[in-house]
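ok so i was messing around last nite and threw this chain in just to see what happens. nothing serious, just curious
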Amino acid sequence: KICHITMLRCVSRGILSTSRSCLISHPSVLPILGYSIYRTTQHLTNTVLPHPQPLIRRAQYTTHPISSVDLTDEKSREVVGASLLPVVNKLQEVCALVGSELNLPQIIVIGGQSSGKSSVLENLVGKDFLPRGSGLVTRRPLVLQLYPNTESSEEWGEFAHKPGSKFTFGQIKHEVEEETDKLLGGKSKKISPEPIILKIHSPKVLPLTLVDTPGMTRVPVGDQPQDIEDQIRKMVHQYINNPNAIILAVHAANQDLATSDALKFAREVDPEGRRTVGVLTKLDLMDKGTDAVEILLGKAYPLKLGFVGVVARSQQDILAGKSISRALKDEHDWFKSNTIYNSVSTQVGSDILALKCNRILTRQIRDKLPDVKNQIRAAIKNTEKELATYGSPVGQTMSEQGWVLMDLINKFVHQFKSDIDGVREEIVTSQINGGARIRYIF
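result:
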């Protein structure tokens, strides 16, 4: 596979300028192709990243932690990262395609089943587009890339496995289910770490990228594998172990915080809470006389990036066909009418959550770009070493590459035949070799 990566752009005056397009290949890719790919990336090692500056001057937050920014202020609500996020999105697509293990900055959404993860994501997008049902619905990670559409009011989705095809939000739901069933062999409750990459283009979204992981479960139900808990734990840890990842831990506020699987998982890899954002859902379902103000203020469970409270659609609302736009309006009205949350007005609402995630992710990308660049340099160097062990240099044209590939195949066939016949030059005399070995075994 040959994959195009839009690579690191030079940062000038705090705004990302022209991109450099490189070709990169994972070490597992055929060496015949890898050599020509990596040879085109030599200029990458000469790219210099200046010291990062604030991305938009009006939205400076370098002197204050994100949790202390007043998101209700007009200047603080400025959107950032519109030029920066697509770079990492492109890298993310290629890494998913070739199985690379680059530690890319990204937001990982984790939470137990029925914690409200899907509702949070739909509120951020402003559309109903995720599959719904009982039990384990999300069986593959969903990489959700949000692109603001500033040129028109058109809204659509596009999948990485079907580039160029536009999907309506109703079609997106069907395609996610179909692609999942295709990989996992039907409507089984198996899970897979292979992600589905979905791009959403809409004038109503902020530039943002999130990875939705399967909901955590403890007891296998129905035809779920008996080790489903371990499988999900392993998959979630694979994402949140990335030191550059931001963890969005979703927890239902009407359940005891001490029982939160999401916060427990996050603490295992982020014990100091430096890269975890807590999201409290179902605030409207809490018992009468109780509230989540202490949690939102960080007194009950301190997190460096703080908590955000949201109110999303209930299952009854979903069955009744309540729209996301109506749900967002009801959320705003609910917080307005519940005056107890006035003291934490900068930490409640889906719009506040979107802005906060946008700021945190943009800042994380900007700070970690030099580290990502070093990782790519190391990958280039290691793969060039591997390619050098294959001997013949690889040409530029398909014809030249084809000849080298045929030569490698012929060498392999000759060596395999020599092993079977027992006439290989490097024969171990202390044991039976070749066909005699096969006869001895069978």
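not much to say yet. Confidence is low (pLDDT under 50) at residues 1-77.
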